[in-house]
Design the sequence.
């Protein structure tokens, strides 16, 4: 009997290996490693739309929240399943995952609580939190914080407030710094930044010292509601608490002003940073570039981008490249957009199809058909799976008279 079970187990394992290989990489003749499975799954999930196929990909990859790549894959899968409104599939997949013996830990259960929030299934998140002791997993403040984050992801700010108010006492849990920072984020996102004052008062009463994240969240919230005097109150409170206003705080101020289309004011903050002998970073410049681009002030954006390219400490990231290429195309500066796009692609950072189509059509409009075809040829080479789509775009390029 024992031998039979062992043979059945070996047969099942072999079947699972063959199943995962056939789903994730049909051309492979050898079983994939865990890392190869994760990469293949993440790549397939980017374009897959069939809900059942999405679940098959996840099962084939044997995802685990322990892996960073797998956490990204879980998140991508849940987002796509939510878009398809396949909630039963989400519930089934998470329940199926929870039956795995190696997932019986607070860390993994907390991850699934967050995924329920991402799916908009906050009642399921609360139910999972409630039944943790039945699973042999004690609740703690980390799982409470995950539940609060789940509420924010689901946009259930009223439920977040109820849980924060009732659950610590109900379950004998002591809120920590992460608890308060999470709740503060929820209040600020929901347009209730004034609650920051009462949160900070409660933290002081409970002898929990706020950190830079606490103040960053509050400052962003007050900017969002254009309560500028409260921003200054937070800056003063930081001094009182001896919390250093580092570059991250100033980046929040710059980003917030840029979102309000006050990029000129944000630029003055950069000047203040430099006057204080502080070192701005790439995020400082990226936020400003985005702000000036959104306001149509491309000369300012181009000047800042040039500063980044000559300072090795301020190297633009992929998002910065994508932003400036897109807005240069919108502003019809196609030659500079092409130059920067080539630099980006040399780093294996390729703008999305919308931007690339804008660039290709724009190059044709200024008589640079060969350059447009070169860009399309590069896209075909880099992304053979979408070669047909690019061929169609190439056929549809405007003709120069």
Sequence:
């Amino acid at each position: 009997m024992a031998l039979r079970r062992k043979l059945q187990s070996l047969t099942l394992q072999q079947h699972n290996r063959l199943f995962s290989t056939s789903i994730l990489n049909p051309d492979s003749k050898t079983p994939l490693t865990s890392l190869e499975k994760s990469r293949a799954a993440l790549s397939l999930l980017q374009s897959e739309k069939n809900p059942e196929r999405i679940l098959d990909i996840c099962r084939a990859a044997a995802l685990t929240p322990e892996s960073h790549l797998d956490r990204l894959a879980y998140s991508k899968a849940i987002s796509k399943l939510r878009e398809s409104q396949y909630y039963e599939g989400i519930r089934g997949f998470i329940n199926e995952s929870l039956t795995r013996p190696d997932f019986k830990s607070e860390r993994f259960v907390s991850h699934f609580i967050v995924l329920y929030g991402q799916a908009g299934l906050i009642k399921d998140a609360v139910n999972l939190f409630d039944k943790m002791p039945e699973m042999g997993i004690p609740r703690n403040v980390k799982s409470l914080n995950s539940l609060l984050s789940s509420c924010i992801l689901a946009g259930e700010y009223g439920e977040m407030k109820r849980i924060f108010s009732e659950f610590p006492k109900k379950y004998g849990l002591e809120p920590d710094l992460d608890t308060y920072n999470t709740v503060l984020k929820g209040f600020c996102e929901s347009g209730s930044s004034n609650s920051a004052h009462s949160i900070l008062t409660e933290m002081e009463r409970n002898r929990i010292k706020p950190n830079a994240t606490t103040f960053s969240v509050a400052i962003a919230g007050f900017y969002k509601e254009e309560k500028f005097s409260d921003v200054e109150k937070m800056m003063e409170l930081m001094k009182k608490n001896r919390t250093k206003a580092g570059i991250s705080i100033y980046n929040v101020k710059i980003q917030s002003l840029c979102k309000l289309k006050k990029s000129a004011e944000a630029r003055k903050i950069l000047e203040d940073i430099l006057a204080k002998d502080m070192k701005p970073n790439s995020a400082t410049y990226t936020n400003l570039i985005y702000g000036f681009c959104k306001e149509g002030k491309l000369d300012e954006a181009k000047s800042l981008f040039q500063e980044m390219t000559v300072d090795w400490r301020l190297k633009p990231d992929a998002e910065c490249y994508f932003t400036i290429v897109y807005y240069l195309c919108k502003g019809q500066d196609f030659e500079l957009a092409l130059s920067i796009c080539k630099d980006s692609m040399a780093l294996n950072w390729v703008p999305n199809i919308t931007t690339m189509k804008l660039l290709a059509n724009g190059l044709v409009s200024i008589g640079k058909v060969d350059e447009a075809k070169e860009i399309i040829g590069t896209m075909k080479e880099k992304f053979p799976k979408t070669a047909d789509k690019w061929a169609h775009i190439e056929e549809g390029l405007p003709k120069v008279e």
About this structure: The first helix runs from residue 2 to 24. Confidence is low (pLDDT under 50) at residues 1-19. DSSP finds 22 helices and no strands in the chain. The two ends are 81 Å apart (CA to CA).
